[in-house]
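User: For a reading group we're discussing how well predicted structures match intuition. Take UTP--glucose-1-phosphate uridylyltransferase. Before you show the prediction, I'll give you the sequence so everyone sees exactly what went in.
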Amino acid sequence: MNADTEHTRLNPASTPVTKAVVPAAGLGTRFLPATKATPKEMLPIVDKPAIQYVVEEAVAARLDDVLMITGRNKRSIEDHFDRAHELEETLEAKGEHERLKAVREPDGLAQVHYVRQGQPRGLGHAVLCAEAHVGDNPFAVLLGDDIIDDAELLRRMIEVRQQRGGSVVALMEVDPEQVSRYGCAGIEPTDEDDVVTVTDLVEKPSPEQAPSRWAIIGRYVCDPAVFPVLRRTPPGRGGEIQLTDALLELAGSGREQGGPVYGVLFRGRRYDTGDKGDYIRTVVEFACRRPDLRDELLPWLHDFVQDRYRGDAGF
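Assistant: Thanks. Here is the predicted 3D structure of UTP--glucose-1-phosphate uridylyltransferase, as structure tokens, for the group to look at:
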């Protein structure tokens, strides 16, 4: 055993986080019939698919190795992050350089790899599909239909992992009536205002059973010890293998066993593009930020809202 290997064994947090896993095998049933043939992750936020924002976030956190967990009817995701030579040649011939740049951008973002999740058996199973690619390294998990409007969150989570070891989840405070949509965490404070120790995890609890109002959103930094735990984790809520169940086991273990689990408290803006209402709000908000769209869109939106509440819009 060389000195570097011995140092890593005794100090597991010293291994840098360089790989990101993006589960994108879901069926997208909430958006049918649009997602019958188009992955929900490819639904556009104005003119860029949601999953590209997720990959850009990973790259901004210096994760240049991205593994997509895909399934049937997800080929368009692979095509999007590949070259499109015929289209590029057409745009170049027409002198449409800005569009050409936008078309080439996804291919140059990161090294993107793919593995298929044969059956939709839950997020825990999707993460387990990454084991061969990740190996004994810590890794980040970014859900493909969550957009986080803060590039610092993932970087902060990686920093906490490097300082403290274990696994790290992103936590956001939600209204009591929303806790049943998430995994919720029981937490204890640490010596840092934005970092807590996770003591309990409950998947989609009722408001009465929730350990807190702090919900796990779609960002994780996992110790590789999660893989053997996932292999022995039985199906939980909904008959699926839950990542929260595996993280709960790690939360009660020592550093040598892959624990504990920490939470980074996030108070920024998160967009759940897997929810119809939030998806529409995301498109509108992102469009209103665009210099090429806002001058035309904002006055129209103002007039539309005024007409709507005067009852003049035919609703």
